[in-house]
Design goal:
With 346 residues, this protein is an alpha/beta fold. The protein folds into three domains: 3-91, Udp-n-acetylmuramoylalanyl-d-glutamate--2,6- Diaminopimelate Ligase, Chain: A, domain 1; 98-153, no CATH class; 160-173 and 195-308, UDP N-Acetylglucosamine Acyltransferase, domain 1 (3 Solenoid). Helix content is 19%, strand content 26%. The protein has an eight-stranded mixed sheet, with helices on one face. A six-stranded parallel sheet has the order 17-22-25-28-31-34, with no helix packed on it. Helix 2 (44-47) links the parallel strand 5 and strand 6. It starts with a strand and ends with a helix.
Length: 346
């Protein structure tokens, strides 16, 4: 649905200039924008590309001269990237899920469906499950027995996400090789024995305004629930193991993995492929760079990087020192030669 420059600016709490009744159908990069698209030219280096496109209106950053770019209208924002969140939200229609219950949905007689819920094709809802009022369930979603989705739940699970799979919790009759290594850090004594499952009797508790990416997996707790706090954003292919406790407003990039019974504070950020060991604590406001491996507890507010993860500045200095090693080795070899010559002269 088309929106005017005035409508978009009001939604963003931003200033609008020029022809504020100009209608916009979508967003585009400046060089590829059509006459009914709003160009995202939020910095001069992007605005310079406006001449290559057909945009009549653009979103600009502060202190940019909209008339100098030959525009008919402009929206000026103070924090461009934050404004992008509002822009994309305003112009995103979201998944198309028809109202009501699709005839192909399979809903157990013991399930409860709230008023105004939209249930898409081939959805399966098990006995005792509760789907709250105004929930939107897209095609092929499976909601198992006794699962509960609250009224007006602000929770997005993208395709393939699994909440409540069994945790990987197994035990052996005698001490396993893993237990031996943890105790000795050395040679193991092989014992022929099989793994026995410890069943997951807990659940997963997911807070409000949480988003799970495609194929993200969150395991049930063994006895207590695995917990995801309000406002967490979890990317594609992230794995959160059994009994993990996560605070609010955390952000985990793709392929991160958190091992069992670990506690994560609030506002923690993991780059892609971060791995976190089991039974440790990561404090609030920790930032871990991509591919870091956190093997011991991290205090609040620390930035870490590397394998094993250490303070980010320590890792950077270590990396610089490693790059200098070939030159240092050459210098040492030359010094050895010089010392040998001096010793020979004596």
């Amino acid at each position: 649905m088309a929106q005017t420059i005035r409508m978009i600016a009001e939604a963003l709490g931003a200033s609008a200039f020029g022809n504020q009744e100009l209608e916009i159908d979508g967003l585009a990069e400046p060089a590829f924008a059509g006459p009914r698209q709003l160009a995202l030219a939020m910095a001069p280096k992007y605005a310079d590309c406006l001449a290559s496109g057909q945009a009549r209106a653009a979103v600009l950053g502060p202190d940019m001269d909209w008339q100098g770019y030959g525009l008919e209208a402009a929206i000026v924002v103070a924090r461009p990237r934050y404004a992008l969140a509002g822009l994309t939200s305003a112009l995103d229609p979201g998944p198309q899920i028809a109202p009501g219950i699709h005839p192909t949905a399979v809903i157990d007689a013991g399930a409860s469906i709230g008023i105004g819920a939209a249930i898409g094709p081939f959805v399966v809802i098990g006995p005792g499950a509760e789907v709250g009022a105004r929930a939107r369930i897209a095609a092929h979603v499976s909601i198992a027995e006794a699962a509960r989705i609250g009224d007006d739940a602000r929770f997005i699970a993208h395709p393939g996400a699994v909440v409540g799979g069994d945790g990987m919790s197994f035990v052996t009759p005698e001490a396993s090789t893993v237990e031996q290594v943890r105790a000795s850090m050395g040679q193991v004594e092989a014992v022929e024995q099989s793994w026995t499952r410890i069943h997951s009797l807990g659940a997963v508790s997911v807070g409000d305004d949480v988003e799970l990416g495609c194929n993200a997996c969150i395991d049930k707790g063994t006895i207590r629930d695995t917990t995801i706090g309000d406002g967490c954003k979890i990317d594609n292919l992230v794995h959160i193991a059994h009994n993990v406790q996560i605070g609010r407003d955390c952000l985990f990039a793709a392929q991160s993995g958190i091992a069992g019974s670990t506690t994560i504070g609030d506002r923690v950020v993991f780059g892609g492929q971060v791995g976190v060991g089991d039974n440790i604590t990561v404090g609030s406001d920790v930032v871990a760079g991509g591919a870091s491996k956190i093997l011991s507890s991290v205090p609040a507010g620390r930035a870490v990087l590397g394998y094993p993860a250490v303070k980010m500045e320590t890792h950077v200095e270590s990396y610089k020192a490693t790059r200098r090693l070939p030159r240092l080795q050459k210098t040492v070899a030359e010094l050895q030669k010089a010392v040998s010559k001096l010793a020979g002269n004596d």
